[in-house]
Amino acid sequence: MANVIVAAIWNWRLPLPNDPNQLHELDLQNYSKNGTFKIDSTPSLRFLNKAAIRRVSSDPWRICTVTEVEETKQMVRMIPIMVCSFIPSAMVAQTHTLFIKQGTTLNRSIGSHFKVPPASLYAFVTISMLLTILIYDRIFLKIMQRVTKNPRGITMLQRMGIGMICHVLVMTVASQVEKHRLHIAAKYGSSAHEQKELPLTIFILLPQFILTGVADAFLLIANNEFFYDQAPENMKSLGSSYFTTSLGIGNFLSTFILSKVSEITKRQGNGWILNNLNASHLNYFYALLAVMSSVNFFLFLLISKFYVYKAEVSDSIQVLTDELKKKKSKA
């Protein structure tokens, strides 16, 4: 990728030929020997095509092949999708942090001798995720294959979109649950300086944990599959890194949002996120996250509308086979 970008910048003053066949490209045999595939030039992101302008140089930082340019284009096209996955990744982070902290304020007793560890509720995310995957593969996928005639049932971006909608629902439900929890806290006179255990079962948090598992089954799996599948054959590892990058940045973004909201609301005199959750307003914070998720979803819809999927590998193999047959027949 770096070679192509540098070469395109280096050649930015050179005129781009009207005929893509005049751009630098290796013979088909070079690709077949290496088990790779030749990719034809496309008109999108035309600036990068300048990296393949023929010139008297063999320096890879000055001239690249059309295939290298197209591979770079494919990676660049996925960047907006990756950016749209930052907010959902930030939503996932709440499951490990604020959701668990909410549990510490609730009645965790089962019987007279056992208390549920708040962090153990995350097991319901895993369970609901596994059940959703099972239902998706055994029932939903088969139904959608018949309806859409698509072997995948629905596209990867559609699956990601469903996951994003689920994240909006997660935060909406979490906001309502927290509103009820705060009502109970006020009813039983919880002090602003003392966080007492409320007479409300911890299992009231189950809906938001279960919905998170459903969202992950759609979004995280589709995210990983999308970045790996749509990456060029020579850049699969880089495609996978897009997925892990989105998770990492999402966690940083979650911390940033939480700290800024806490700082701003404290300055206004009524902090949303305090050490004592019974004196906080997490319901407002969750509502804010729901709004952010909604805005991100509509942005994702706009970007997805213009995204062009990479051709399947099977199609590339067929094209390569046909071209080799033509060359042999001419010879």
**Looking at the chains present, what oligomeric state does this protein adopt?**
single chain
Please report the number of helical segments: 13
SS strand fraction: under 5%
Radius of gyration: 26 Å
End-to-end separation? 36 Å
Which class do the helix and strand fractions yield? mainly alpha
The count of β-strands is 2
Determine the CATH superfamily of the largest domain.
MFS general substrate transporter like domains
In the residues, how many domains can be counted? 2
Q: Give the biggest sheet.
A: 2 strands, antiparallel
Strand order of the largest sheet: 1-2
Give the CATH level 1 class of the largest domain: Mainly Alpha
Runs in which pLDDT lies below 50 for 5 or more consecutive residues are 313-317
Write the H/E string, N to C.
HHHHHHHEEHHHHHH
Description:
By secondary structure, the protein is an all-alpha fold. The protein folds into 2 domains: 75 residues, no CATH class; 236 residues, MFS general substrate transporter like domains (Growth Hormone, Chain: A, Up-down Bundle), CATH 1.20.1250.20. Helix content is 64%, strand content 1%. It has 13 helices and 2 strands. A two-stranded antiparallel ribbon has the order 1-2. Strand 1 and strand 2 form a beta hairpin. About 2% of the residues have low confidence.
